[in-house]
């Protein structure tokens, strides 16, 4: 049974999504109207996934995400909000959010997103994923990095750092799963690393 926290200040939305989650025999929803009551509950309850609104009374959802990821880094956080602006998206991801859905998504998408999160994915609404891709297309150019990664390899490494799985990358870049694996093998070879963790550690240390 997955223990799901639903942090949402709109009572109607909170009730609807709690009902949808509780209809699933493998999930149990605990609704909260603000960050403070959720964080207080975390002292006694271990949540597997948190559905987090951004615009909450008192402590906002991004600050709350940063707090819960600091005390419980293994807890998975899915931002669920009407906001699509780049500032909120990247602040949420930097705070440790594992996925980002907009409330215009279909109701069933939240159930699918919970399952994807739990299986190791990073669910994002299509328009959010596009903003992430657009952002990374404008950042540091690959030919300036010391490992000589190609433009495509640099793009894939950036997506790995954001939390995308191999299949997510294939879907977003419209290439095959096998092509993604080949690129990642080449990335590891050029960076002289053996796995994703080592590659991302170098990426985060700014060695590219």
Unreliable residue stretches? 140-144
Span between termini: 41 Å
Helicity, as a percent range: 40-55%
**Strand segment tally:** 5
What does this protein structure show overall?
The chain is of the alpha/beta class and 208 residues long. It has ten helices and five strands, in the order E-H-E-H-E-H-E-H-E-H-H-H-H-H-H. The protein has helices at 11-23, 35-41, 61-71, 86-95, 107-118, 126-137, 151-162, 166-173, 177-191, 196-204, and strands at 2-7, 27-32, 49-52, 76-81, 99-102. Helix 1 links the parallel strand 1 (2-7) and strand 2. Helix 7 (151-162) packs across helix 9, helix 7 (151-162) packs across helix 10 and helix 8 (166-173) crosses helix 9. The longest helix is centred in the C-terminal third of the chain and has 15 residues, at 177-191. The radius of gyration is 18 Å and the shape is elongated. The protein starts with a strand and ends with a helix. Mean pLDDT is 84; it is low at 140-144.
Q: Summary?
A:
The chain is α/β, with parallel strands linked by helices.
Top keywords for this entry?
single chain; 208 residues; alpha/beta; 5-stranded parallel β-sheet; 10 helices; 52% helix; elongated
Secondary-structure blueprint of this entry?
Elements: E1 2-7, H1 11-23, E2 27-32, H2 35-41, E3 49-52, H3 61-71, E4 76-81, H4 86-95, E5 99-102, H5 107-118, H6 126-137, H7 151-162, H8 166-173, H9 177-191, H10 196-204
Parallel strand pairs: 1-2, 1-3, 3-4, 4-5
């Amino acid at each position: 049974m997955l223990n799901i926290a639903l942090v949402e200040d709109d009572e109607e939305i909170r009730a609807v999504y709690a009902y949808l989650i509780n209809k699933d025999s493998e999930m149990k929803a605990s609704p909260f109207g603000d960050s403070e009551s959720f964080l207080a509950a975390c002292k006694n309850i271990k949540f597997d996934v948190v559905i987090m609104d951004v615009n909450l009374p008192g402590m906002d959802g991004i600050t709350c995400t940063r707090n819960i990821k600091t005390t419980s880094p293994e807890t998975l956080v899915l931002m669920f909000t009407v906001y699509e602006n780049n500032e909120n998206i990247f602040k949420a991801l930097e705070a440790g959010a594992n996925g980002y859905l907009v409330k215009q998504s279909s109701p069933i998408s939240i159930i699918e997103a919970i399952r994807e999160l739990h299986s190791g994915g990073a669910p994002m609404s299509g328009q959010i994923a596009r903003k992430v891709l657009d952002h990374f297309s404008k950042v540091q150019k690959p030919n300036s990095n010391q490992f000589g990664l190609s433009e495509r390899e640099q793009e894939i490494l950036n997506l790995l750092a954001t939390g995308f799985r191999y299949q997510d990358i294939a879907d977003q870049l419209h290439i095959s799963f096998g092509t993604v694996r080949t690129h990642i093998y080449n990335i590891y070879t050029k960076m002289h690393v053996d796995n994703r963790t080592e590659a991302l550690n170098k990426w985060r240390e700014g060695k590219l």
